[in-house]
Amino acid sequence: MLNLANLSPESTIKSGEIMARMEYADIAAVTQALEKMYGPRGGRGIALRSGRAGFKYVLRQNGVGIGITDLNFRLLPVPARLKTGLDALAGLMGKIGDEQVQVVENDQNWTWRSQHCPLCWQRSSNEPVCHFTVGLLQEFLAWASSGRVFSVNEIECQATGAEACLFQIDKKALD
């Protein structure tokens, strides 16, 4: 897959682990390579599942630092836990990269607004391509709500020409 993304293993792997800070162009190239290798639907599915699986690494490496693993957070009522956790994740995205994320709330949903998104960096597409982020948000919401499933949809994407990537997160669980 790295060959399809025009990346060399030496540039992305150090001591058997993927480097913590890949360039945005490299991240976008990997997501494009997934779609080339497995087709559009397969690549999207793998990116979505990767985002879900990736949340456990975010939690392990940053959970204490952003305060989502301490007892005070876990004892919050579920709606407050979800909002507080989304804000904490948004702040983390700004710390680990150039991504600028804002979480806006209304009565029915939260909107995750991401500028400088690494997944669609300098990409052009007819439909949203940030499936990894959708999976990451879905897994966070399930973890923070003790297994409940929430709808997360990317409604605007920079790859389609939008100003920012917008993800709509329903406040009401699907189950």
Q: What is the number of beta strands? A: 6
The helix-and-strand class reads alpha+beta
In spatial order, strands of the major sheet run 3-4-6-5
Element pattern in H and E: HEEHHHEEHEE
CATH class: Alpha Beta
Second rung of CATH, namely the architecture: Alpha-Beta Complex
CATH-assigned fold name: H-NOX domain
Radius of gyration: 16 Å
Helix content: 40-55%
What's the name of the CATH homologous superfamily? H-NOX domain
Low-confidence stretches: 12-20
Distance between the terminal alpha carbons, to the nearest Å? 37 Å
What can be said about the biggest beta sheet?
4 strands, antiparallel
Total count of helical runs of at least 4 residues:
5
What coarse outline follows from CA principal-axis ratios?
globular
Q: Briefly, what is this?
A:
With 175 residues, the chain is of the alpha+beta class.
Written account of the structure:
The strands form 2 sheets. A 4-stranded antiparallel sheet has the order 3-4-6-5, with helices on one face. Helix 2 packs parallel to helix 5 and helix 4 (78-96) packs antiparallel against helix 5 (131-144). The chain has 5 helices and 6 strands. The chain has 175 residues and is an alpha+beta fold. 29% of the residues are buried. The model is unreliable at 12-20 (pLDDT under 50). The protein has one domain: H-NOX domain (Alpha-Beta Complex), CATH 3.90.1520.
